[in-house]
User: What shape does this take?
Amino acid sequence: MKRVLVKETTEQIGKVVRVCGWVNSRRDHGKIIFIDLRDRSGMVQIVFTPDLKSKIYELAQKLRPEWVIEVIGEVGKRPKGMENPKIETGNIEVKGSQLKVFSQAKTLPFSIENDGYEIKEEKRLKYRYLDLRRPRLQRNLEIRQKVIQFMRNFLQKKGFLEVETPILTKATPEGARDFLVPSRIYQGKFYALPQSPQQYKQLLQVAGIERYFQIAKCLRDEDPRADRQAEHTQLDIEMSFVTQEEILDLVEKLYVSLVKKIFPEKKIQKTPFPRISWAEAIKKYKSDKPDVRRNKKDQNELAFCFVIDFPMFEWHEKEKKWGAQHHPFTKPQTEDIKEIKTCPKKILAFQYDLVLNGFEIGGGSIRTTNLDILLAVFEVLGHKPEKVKKQFPHYFEAFSYGVPPHGGIALGIERFLAILLPEPNIREVIAFPKTGDNRDLMMNIPSEVDEKQLKELGIKIIKSK
Ligand code: ASP
Assistant: This one.
């Protein structure tokens, strides 16, 4: 007999169905046993009455919360006055005639009935597979999927090609520390996990793809921060033959139509999204991610803006050197190499951020395709041309075979979802997040590995603390 989802039972009145799921709760009224059965689609009430075969009735008496069961029974209307308007199946119930227990369950370490914000997060993360049974988190995963699906459809309709790029790759100067993966076959050599697909997506432009996107995992070994994750997901985009304004326009259309479709209750404060120069943002709002909402108390108010015209370089006082505001592949707003080298402070870049309610939710740039300018930028950052050519030989080689002008952007998925849902932090929109200090409490990682594995890799651990 085919299984039906509990929400489908409402269309099966008078018919015998087979439903499977978890016991959400059990109530006994006299000799009648009521079970709320939960599956991915919702909840339905099952009734077991004492006139059943004694074996089944006795089994029903044993049922406890979170046991996994199968019930076969007839769907009937609930008696008048017994309807429950709070659940979708509140007008009906299933009169259980057969019962099978797939597995029993220990008492859960916490309740999954409510939102769970009050439970210690360490505990929730340790038992994430139980925490995820919570309707709030199931809804978050569902909306996450809807958002990603929307992005995919939107871009595919506009002629973009989704391309997967490698996870085992090479260190990139994206501004954070790389996670390294030791090579067993080439001992002493390493792969790096991608901080972003930056170089690959640019090389795809050389390859003639012209319009690329990817739902990409980015991995950055940053120092622990409460609301950061070592890995995050971004919608990564790169396009050939485009202007900065065309990229911003595409992104704006994407978000406006996405919000309209998936979050119709939200109100976008202003379109076109205001374009604010970095200098103005700093002057007027004292921030490069200005919160331009008129009404900060209204949860449904969305104030998007683009911050543009960032300085190309930023001074790192601690190390007494220049760093790139975005990354070195960003195109400066001048072609004058001498000026770049002598007045780095003054140089603006074709760089832009998408900001929503005071949070940066995306950033990108038009890229330098003139290799002399790229070398000059790296020189300001303190890298000699020979070293740069050695570090990125593929770039220099590839760009000598006909490179189109190109640019792109990366849009953070988790931060956007956290603002829209709304959730207090990005962990609430990730199925298996790590703690603020980069641990996975469920899998217990990072963890030690076998001596044998280390030997194969030619690695010796020197403990520094
Ligand atoms: N790769 C950049 C980042 O991840 C985004 C971009 O420039 O497209 O921040």
